Structure formats: C-alpha cells, structure tokens
Amino acid sequence: MGLPQRLILTLLSIYLYSATVVNTQQEFKIQSVELIIEPRNDVTAGTNVTLRCHATVSTSTGKGLIREYTILKNDKIVYTKTIGSSEDFVYQLHNARVFSTGLYQCKLDIQGDTKLSKAQRLNVQGLSQPVLHLNTNVVNEGEEVRATCIAPGEIGSFIFFFFDNDEQISRVEGLSNQAKTTFRLSGADIHKIHCSYKIRTAEDTFPSTKSNNVTVSVKELSITPELKIFPDSTIYEGDHLNISCSAKNVHSSSEGYKLFLSQGTKLLRTGNSTINHNMVAVPKASEALTFDCRVVVRNVEKYSEKKISVVELFSVPSLTMSPTEVFQGQIMTLTCNSDRFASQRINREDLEYTLYPSKNLPSSGKPGVFNVKALQNDFNYTCSAEAKGIKKDSKTLMIRPKVHVSALKISIEDKVILKKSFTILCQSNGSLPINYTLFKDNVQVGTKVIRERNRQAVFMDVINEPGERQYRCEAKNSLHSNKTGSSQHLSVNVIVPLSQMTLAVIPSSLAISEGEELNFICSVNGTGPVTFKWYRTGSVVPLQTNTTTETYSNLEIKPVSKNDSDEYYCEASNGANKVRSENVNVQVFMASWKKRLIVVACLLLLLLLVLLLVASMLNIKSKRVKVDRAEVSVWSKRKPETESDDEISEVSNEPNVEYTEVVHARSTDPARVPLRKGTDTVYSELQNSPNGAADPPDYGSVEYAELNREQFEISQYDPQVHSYQDLPEPVD
Fold first, then answer.
1. Peptide linkage before 357 cis (omega within 30 of 0)
2. Which site among 29, 213, 225, 705 is 20 to 30 Å from 45 CA-CA?
3. 127 C-beta neighbours (distance < 10 Å), count
4. Bridge partners, 683 (sequence order)
C-alpha cells in the first residue's frame, strides 16, 4: 500500500472518529414516531404496500444521528435497519397477501433512547384459488393415487384439505404453499377430486375457495367373498352349524388377499384361503344370528353377510315360591318350570330340573316342585333345566323369611288426666308390615298398620270417669297370619285435676302470741300424689315443699316470733293442674310474760326517777347554805383607806392573805380583777398589812373557796404545794 493511500485512510479515520465524538456529544430528543400505511389500510391480495416510518427528532447541532428502525407485526420483529439520515424509513410489502394482515408498529432507537409509534392495522383480503394435480385419471379399485394442491403466490401457515365427492379423504399442514398426499379409491365409480386450503394468522383463520375438480375413473375388482351356512333350513337350539368363507374370481396374477369370518362383533377365524368354522347353534333373545365374510385386497374390502334364526329348544326356567310370604321355619314350595319347549325335538318329560344350592331333587311327584323349610335368615335359590345336553339356569330368587311378632310392649307417653286425650304406644319386633290392635278393658279401641322400621303404633284415647283402666296391644305380621302376639296389661290411674283448695290456720284466731305453735293446713279435692308448697307473700322460695298421696298437708312453725307476722298462701299440683289458696294474714303479738316484765320495769324506772328528783332537791338546798357562808367570808367590806395604820395593826400583826377560787358567770367589777372571762375559775389575792405594803411571801395557812354556780367547796391552801409564782397573773 502506497503512502497516498495510507494518508487517505488516516484522514478518513480521523474524520469518522471526529463525527462519532460529535454524535456522542450532541443532545437530541425524539419527539414523535408515526407509521403510515400506503396506499391504505384495507387492500386486496396482490397489492404493493408501503410501510412508512416518519420520525421527528430535535438536536442541539442539527447534524444527522445514527437511527435504528424496527418494523413489528403483532408485537413480533419483522425487519430492522440502521440509517444515518433523517429521511423517512420505508418498508415494502410486495404483492401483499392475506398472511400480511395484522397490527404493525414502527420503533426508533437512537443511542438507546427509543420511541414506539401507534399501531396501524393492515387488512389484506382475498386468497388465490388453489390448483389440484393428480398423477392419473384412471385406476383400479384399491390402487394408490398421488395428488398435489397448490396455493399460488400465498405465504404463511397452511392447512390443505383433499376431497372425494365432497367427502374429506386427507389433510396436510405446513408452511409451504403446496401440499402432496396419496389415497386409495374404492368402489367402481366416477370420483371427483378437489382441494382447498386455509391460512392461519395470529388472530384468525382465512379459508380459500375450492380448487378445480379432477375426475378419476375407478375399475372394480372381480374378486368377491362367498359365505355358506349348513344346514340352511330350520335350525334348532343345539344343532351343529358348518360355516365356510371363501373368495371367488381370484386370478393367479392378482395381489394377495385375506379372509375374515365374524359373528356379530366376534371374530371367529381369519385366513388366506377358504375358512371353515363349526359351532353349536345358540339362540339370542329376540335376535337372529349374523355372520360376516370379508375379503381384503389392496385396502379394498368386500363382504357378504347372512342372518339365521335359531328355534329355542326350551325356554329359560323360572323359579317361584308358594306362599308368597313365609315365616322362619315354615315349609314352602319352590317350583322350577320352563313354560316353552320345541315339541318337534323334545317332550316335557325330557326336561330335568335341579334346585341350587341344595341340589335337591323334586320332593313331590311333579317335576320341578320342591318342598323346602324356610331358614332363619335371608337366602338365595336358583334352579336349572336340562335337555339334549343343553342346560339353562333361572334367575336368582331371594327369600326373606318373615319374623313373627315378639316382645310386644305397650306404654303411655303422657299423663292420663280426666277428660283429656292421651297417647298410647305399641311396639314389637318382627317383619313388616305389622298390624296393631288396641284394647281397653277388653274392648277394641282401634287398629294401626306399621310399614316402616322402628316406628311405633300411636293410639289416642280419652277417659271420662275416674278410676282405673286396663289397656293391652295385640300384633301380627299380616291380616292372614295365624300367630298373634299380645302385650301385658297396662293399668292406668286417671288423674283428677285439683279443685276447691282451702287453707286453715290453727289456732283459729289470727292473733298469735310469741312462743306459741302455728299450723297451716292445706287441703284440695282431686287425686294424688299432690305436691304442696307454702310461701310468704313477696318470696319466690317456698317455706316448705312436700309430696304426698293424700290430698292435704300441713306446715308447722314453732315457736313463732314477731318476724313471722306476714301473709301466707299455699300452692298444690298433681301433674294435671296447679291451684293456689287465698292469702292468710298472720299477726304475732308480744308474749304475756314480756308484757308483765315491761310493766315492772316501767314502775321501777318511775320510782328511780322520783328518788333522783328528791335527792337533787336536797342537794340544791345544801349548796345554797354554803354559798351564803362563803359570801360573808370572802366579800367582807374593807375599811376605808383613810383609816390609820394603828387601827389596822390592831387587828393583826401578821400578814393575812386569803385565796378564793370563784366561778363567775361573767364578772364586770374591776375591783375583783377577773382573770378570765366566762365561766372560768379565778383566783384573787386579799392581803392585809399593818403598814399598807406587801410583806415577803411568807404566808401562813391560806383558805380558798371554789364556787361553781350552785356548788362550792372550801379547803385549806398549802403554800408548800401551791407556790406564789404559780398563781396566774392578773389581766387587764
């Protein structure tokens, strides 16, 4: 390579690299992508269709971008192409076909940024007519024919159909627009062959029209089957049959053939030459025997069919029982009999009957008659009839021996109340149906028939007079049964409803004193047992409950107290009804000894009050005397201060101090210097001095008096016990 060429390549590489760098650096935006179908969306087959993809892209430099366009049909990629220009991308569908029908879209991809157009539907209508070709127009029966069906110009997924006189004989699927098949024609006749096809798309299947008809002439084969049956006249059950199947008009040059001999759907024999089969004739109910001989050559079948009637030698025996109902252990008669036989071949005496499973021979002089004792449980019997080596069995006869009624029981469901209906039940063990009869005092009341298991016979009755009644049930399995079961007698006592209830109180006076004994006696008319209950009004809990066969009862309260005062009543019930007495008011008064005790206590209390009043009056008089004396000694008048000291000294040379404790209601005299207001205790100091001055606190004996309104007490004051300092200070 020369220098100029290398230089040119280098410059070109630089240019392309620069363009790539520019491409990668410039910014862009795919604004829209639109798919346009030209000339239109609906076209006929063979039209040239253009799919135009128009994209609007904005760029920062205005230079071209590398664009990748993809055409999709029904969400599957059809075509992809990369271009470097901004022109519309065009995809051509030359000679569009029905297979081109579908939803199309256009996708644009620029440097990983993609945008998809809206879907547009293309409809292509019309399929080309198929063309049929056969390899021959004349064939022998059974020869093979080769056929080719072509769908000119079509593409897609095909299904081809081949028809013989409008009957489908072959089907071929594929992706090619032509299909080949082979088939054989049977029956000497003119056959018209044609074909058609269908194209499958993702959404639907489109059928074509019929192709041209091709006529084929079929020559019949000369070979025919031959079927022979011996004897060919009247055939009786048990006769031996000889059946042969062969082919006629067989040429040595003809292809090999095969024979098939059948009876109905059962294949008897096969072979390549004449077939012989021997059998005993056995009739089929209301049907003839059908035999078929077939010969097959080159897939061509030809057959011959014959039907024969077989006369029954004797009919299938039937097994019957007499009587139709039998009880356990009872002797019954089983009869096995074939009512029809072929008198041309056998006599009735030729028939031999056997009973199974016991294999008993007839126990009487008549053929097929057996005397058997019924078992304790269900059992199945069959019998057979045999003549000329042919044996036939009867249908199974199931014998269910009946069970005589037993364990008959009678019961009453409700309480028997006078003049009210009640239910009587009868039940027993035994085979159904069971007939029940109810008797009252040996007089029939009614009958019932029970046909279901575990059901009881239900009778209703009413008793209108008090007293005892006798009931019993009789039962038997059927009206014609000679064995009847009877229940035990059921004695029924009629309950008479309660009435005329009375409540008595003993003692009869309703004024009862404490400690006495109180009795309530409740009585009714009716029948027992009766349940009595006693109540206090306002309480739902009975004081006493007892049940007795008598029509009366009592409640005893002892000893009674004041708390037993109340209203009482009685209730009684006997299963028929409930009655209630009227309320009885009971007042319990205080006991007489308590009254006497209270009178004595009151007198003693009155005497005590009188004594206290006398003592109080004497005490008040004594206190008044003491108060008068105290007022003289405490509140003595002092001499005027103008008196001389000599006069004072004449009275006493020793200091004279007196303490008086006085209780005032209220003091207003300032000279007395009250220490406390109200009813308080006050201490006053009275001191006499010869010189008019206070002497040292050397006090001798001091007297004080305590006054409290009516009572007071004077006592000696001991200065050693009460010091001067302990005295309360005067208050202003």
1. yes
2. 213
3. 22
4. 661
Helix (H, G, I), strand (E, B) or coil at 103: strand
Question: What is the share, in percent, of the chain residues with pLDDT greater than 70?
Answer: 78
Rounded to whole angstroms, the Cα distance separating 252 from 324 reads 73
Residues of the chain with pLDDT > 90, as a percent, come to 40
Whole-angstrom Cα distance, residue 154 to residue 198?
11
* 671, pLDDT greater than 50: no
* Burial bucket for residue 642 (CB in 10 Å: 0-12, 13-18, 19+): exposed
Question: What letter represents residue 299's amino acid?
Answer: N
Query: Which residues are registered as beta bridge partners of 196?
Result: 161
- Rounded CA gap, 273 and 250, in Å? 10
3-class state of residue 17 by DSSP = helix
Of 256, 281, 282, 278, residue with least CA distance to 269: 278
Model confidence pLDDT, tens digit, residues 382-429: 999 999 889 999 999 999 888 888 889 999 988 899 989 999 999 998
Say yes or no to pLDDT of 721 above 60: no
Residue 700, Cβ density class (10 Å: 0-12 exposed, 13-18 middle, ≥19 buried): exposed
Q: How far, in Å, CA of 730 to CA of 317, rounded?
A: 155
Alpha-carbon torsion 392, 393, 395, 399, what sign?
Answer: positive
CA angle, 273 as apex, 269 and 277 as ends, to 5°? 35
Please state whether beta strands 369-373 and 331-337 pair in parallel, antiparallel, or not at all (unpaired). Answer: antiparallel
Tell me the pLDDT tens digit for each residue of 536-571: 998 899 999 999 989 999 999 888 888 888 899 999
Cα separation of the two ends of the chain: 150
SS (H, E, C) 48-79: CEEEEEEEEEEECCCCCCCEEEEEEECCEEEE
Cα separation, 387 vs 273, whole angstroms: 38
The token pair at 571 is: 């209730």
In angstroms, the CA 39 to CA 731 distance is 139
Would the pTM count as exceeding 0.70?
A: no
